[in-house]
Amino acid sequence: MKHDEALGRKNSILVHLSGLPRKILSLHGREDLTEFVLRDLSHECCFNLKKAAFFVDNPDFNCLKGVAGYAHVENPTVCDYLWDHPEKFRARIQESPFNQRVRDLWLPSLQRVEESQEEMVNKIAQTLEMNDPVSHSLDVKHGNHGILIFEKENQSDLLADEYLPHGVSLLGFCPIY
C-alpha cells in the first residue's frame, strides 16, 4: 500500500470510529444497539469485515452467548439509513440468517471448558461458516468478557488491525439483552 493510500485508509478508519460515540448516544437504550455498532465497525470505511459475530462470555452464569452477527453479503446496501432510520435496519438485521445463527448460539463459558479460546473460536467460526477467522477479546461490564470473531474482506489490510481494539471496545458500551 502506497503512503498516500495508507494515510487515506487510516484517516477513513479514524473518522469512522470518532463518529461512533455520538451515534451510540443517539440510539441509547435500544436493545439492538449492538447490531448497529457491529455493522458500522464492519463497514468498508472502517474495518471492512466480511462477517463479524460478537459474543459475551459470562463465567458466573457459565455461558457464552451470541449477541449480534453481521454478514456483508446479506446486507450489502445497508449504510446510508442505518442511524437515521433505525427501524429499517432493525427489520433487515432481524431477517438476517447470519445474525439469527449468532444469536441462537449459547455455549458453556470459555472459562469453564477445557478447550482453549482459539479452539472454541474455530468451532464457532466453523458453525458460522467463517473462513480464516480472527478473534479479539476484551473485558466488558460486570465481569464479562466480549469476543469478536470476524472474517476480513482483505487479509492484507494491516492498518485496520492497528485500530481494531479501539473500535471493538465500543461494543462494550452496548446493552446486552
Description:
It is a single chain. This protein has 177 residues and is α+β, with helices and mostly antiparallel strands. It has one domain: Beta-Lactamase (2-Layer Sandwich), CATH 3.30.450. It is 42% helix and 20% strand. It is built from six helices and five strands. It has a five-stranded antiparallel β-sheet with strand order 3-2-1-5-4, with helices on both faces. Helix 1 runs antiparallel to helix 2 and helix 1 packs parallel to helix 6. The longest helix is centred in the N-terminal third of the chain and has 24 residues. The radius of gyration is 16 Å and the shape is globular. The mean pLDDT is 91.
Give a quick set of tags describing it.
177 residues; alpha+beta; Beta-Lactamase; 5 strands
Rg on CA atoms, Å: 16 Å
Q: Pairing-aware structural class of the strands and helices?
A: alpha+beta
The domain count comes to: 1
Q: What general outline do the C-alpha atoms trace?
A: globular
| CATH fold assignment | Beta-Lactamase
Q: How many DSSP E strands?
A: 5
Cross-sheet strand order for the largest sheet: 3-2-1-5-4
Average of per-residue pLDDT values: 91
Terminus-to-terminus distance: 41 Å
Q: Output the number of helix runs.
A: 6
Q: How much β-strand is present in the residues?
A: 15-25%
CATH class: Alpha Beta
Helix content estimate: 40-55%
Topology (elements, then pairings):
Blueprint: H1 3-26, H2 33-42, E1 49-58, E2 63-71, H3 86-95, H4 97-104, E3 106-107, H5 117-127, E4 134-139, E5 145-152, H6 158-169
Antiparallel strand pairs: 1-2, 1-5, 2-3, 4-5
Helix pairs in contact: 1-2, 1-6
